[in-house]
Amino acid sequence: MRQAQLGELLECIRRRQPVLTVTNLASGDVHLVRAEVVGSEGRLAGDLREALRTDKARTVKTEEGDVFINVFNPPLRMLMVGAVHISQALIPLAERAGYDVTVVDPRTAFATPERFAGVRLVAEWPDEVIPTLGLDRRTAVILLTHDPKIDDPALKLALKSDAFYIGALGSTRTHAKRIERMQAAGFDGRELARIHAPIGLDIGAVGPVEIALSIMAEVTAVLRGRGDRSK
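and the corresponding structure tokens:
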């Protein structure tokens, strides 16, 4: 890899921009491909997309010989809005799945280090914190407070971001009211369709642990390209 390519690769990593390298195994030539231009890579486009989706490198046979595709996806992040029982159960699942977790809740009675030991905990309003986090396509946003004063500002910012998953706790009736509020705030149907609500896969979950499990399963399905509820 040439020095300029290495510099570009490191800059993409620093900025949390997904990037791939395509190395011709015979010649050693290296080609850098940013995620946003994968579609222009011809016959390799499908393999590049699959590498991004699965976070797995692969060797592919081409007319020019075998090439090795390596993927440099930014680390996964999960923002949980709400220092509640469900988030307590969800945190270990998310961490085991490789997510860097942040919990945001302005209610200091809930957001205590004793309840969330070892987790990045921010006892501030989401609309003050989220702009500093830089939500991107490797970030999942989980809204759990069931309080519009807290969840709605976070939801508005999430909908304006590239977060790959946005989920909100609440019944179908609660979500219908949420949609009405978001429509009043100017969001259209395409944008609102990004919200997964009621949150989690429908597995008949009862209690925080099972709900957390259903959420983690749905986040994983969306991350891996299997989470379209319309299918």
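(Above: one complete record from the training split.) The helical segments are 3-14, 45-54, 85-96, 126-133, 148-159, 172-184, 189-192, 207-223.
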